Amino acid sequence: MAVGYASGKVILFGEHAVVYGRPAIAxxxxxxxxxxxVEDAGRGQGITVVARDLGQTYKLSEAAPxxxxxxxxxxxxxxxxxxxxxxxxITVSSTIPIARGLGSGAAVSTAIVRALLEHFDKWLDSRxxxxxxxxTEKIHHGTPSGIDNTVIAFEKPVYFVKGGKMEIFWVQRPxxxxxxxxxxxxxxxxxxxxxxxxWEREPAKYEELFDDIGTIAEMGRQAIEQGDIEAxxxxxxxxxxxxxxxxVSSPELEGLIGVARQxxxxxxxxxxxxxxxxxxxxxxxxxxSRVSMMLRLAGAKDVIVTDxx
Length: 309
Ligand code: PMV
Description:
This protein has 309 residues and is of the alpha+beta class.
């Protein structure tokens, strides 16, 4: 039996503007993971998918046209040249909440690629895995920037610009993030389409906002490379102000973001598409438990602490 894993992720700076060519920064979140298991099945069985969390088992050949898993299985088998005539059971499970900005779709796809590679004793580098997953992300999300598949395939903090530019950079001083879930599902596609419509109506205004967010992402990278945690916090707050102007925040997000700052977080913002999903707060060892507790009391559905290094 072959097993593949992939972590979740959060975007620290630059969501939405990254779709318009500005830089963004994302980091892996190893506390949540997707897992895929690949086992041989009896002769003539074909490929069976077991989606544990959804309680579904089905033959890949009979999957619905919009099935979320079929594209990555097919493209991976084609890429490694083993063909689709396989007898396999692929079992997928994940602790990454769906549609909350933690990269669940890209992580499940990455775990499947890794498990298939191991099963067939093949190897692809992180770039090739990221490219395969990106193709599936396009099917599900319309116009993804590619940041999710990149950070998840490389498993390192990344500075990312749409179109392929990607740099892994140095984290001078490890830092702690509290990630809190509003409990509101927010499909990325919807938020991205709304921003696109707004940009089409008022291009000059939105281009300026994207520029400002891009500048924050650049400064955020410098702050991380210099270990300047206070500057990072200020930049997160400023990024959140601009995301609010893009109209991708929500009352639930604003509530948790405000509570984190009251609890002593150095900065807090939404992460990912917004409108719901998760917010992140930059904390120290001293403020971590207080901020986490206050977020729970304020109604966060889940709170995760991750160490970025
Ligand atoms: O919600 P997520 O984790 O899929 O993040 C979306 C990030 C956006 O910048 C809004 C879209 C993208 O493709 O980069």
